Amino acid sequence: AGAETVKRAVELDLASRFQESLVCYQEGIDLLLQVVKATKDGAKKHRYREKISELLFFSDGKYHKQIRIEENATGFSYEKLFQEYLTEIVSEVWVEDPYIRQIHQLYNFLRFCEMLVKGPCKVKTIHLLTSYDEGSGRSQQMSGLEEIQQSLRNYGVMLDVAFSSSIHDREIRFNNGWMIKIGRGLDYFKKPQGRFSIGYCDFDLRPCHETTVDVFHTKHTKKM
């Protein structure tokens, strides 16, 4: 399976489909790492490690894509933005966003977590770094995060929450090397016109605030 995945990665690379090739390279590397762990033969381990080193070299190209979301644009749900980067090897996610405070922001984070639970990734741990609500909404913020934490636990996912008073950057990282930075963080959707208006439930139909989305890929860092 690893060899077939790597072969596909090379084909995509040659076709200049770099984003897809990087995903395949990462999956191929992960499969080969599993083989290394299971192999007791020292010579075979050495050969596999050499092959992985070659793949790390090929998959180490710097990747950057920018998506501009225009004012009132639709069709930018979390699934549309993140799904292609959530491969099966994703098991850990880091979210840095200072504004997971108000009710609608907590719901945004909950929707993001729901997407992770649905797969196809096998997320086991989500790390959230945010800031405290500085007003009367702090108890509401804490109880909301605790409820999300408990609910995720029912699905075998641990939510680790930390707070920082100096956090400004907004970024989301997956342990397969993909990093997404959204200018407005997860809070880029406009308030719906009413509780029974189109776009209230389906975020693909919800108008957005203007923002930019930057997608990067970092070097595979798993140890051999």
From TrEMBL:
Task: Check the record and name the InterPro entries matching this protein.
Answer: MIT_dom, MIT_dom_sf, MIT_domain_contain_protein1, MITD1_C, MITD1_C_sf
Question: Which BP terms in the Gene Ontology apply to this protein?
Answer: midbody abscission
Span of domain MIT: 2-56
Which ranges form a coiled coil? none
- Pfam families (UniProt xref): MIT, MIT_C
Superkingdom of the source?
A: Eukaryota
Q: Where is the MITD1 C-terminal phospholipase D-like domain?
A: 75-217
A GO CC annotation recorded here is: midbody
Provide the protein name.
MITD1 protein
Q: Which organism is it from?
A: Syrrhaptes paradoxus (Pallas's sandgrouse)
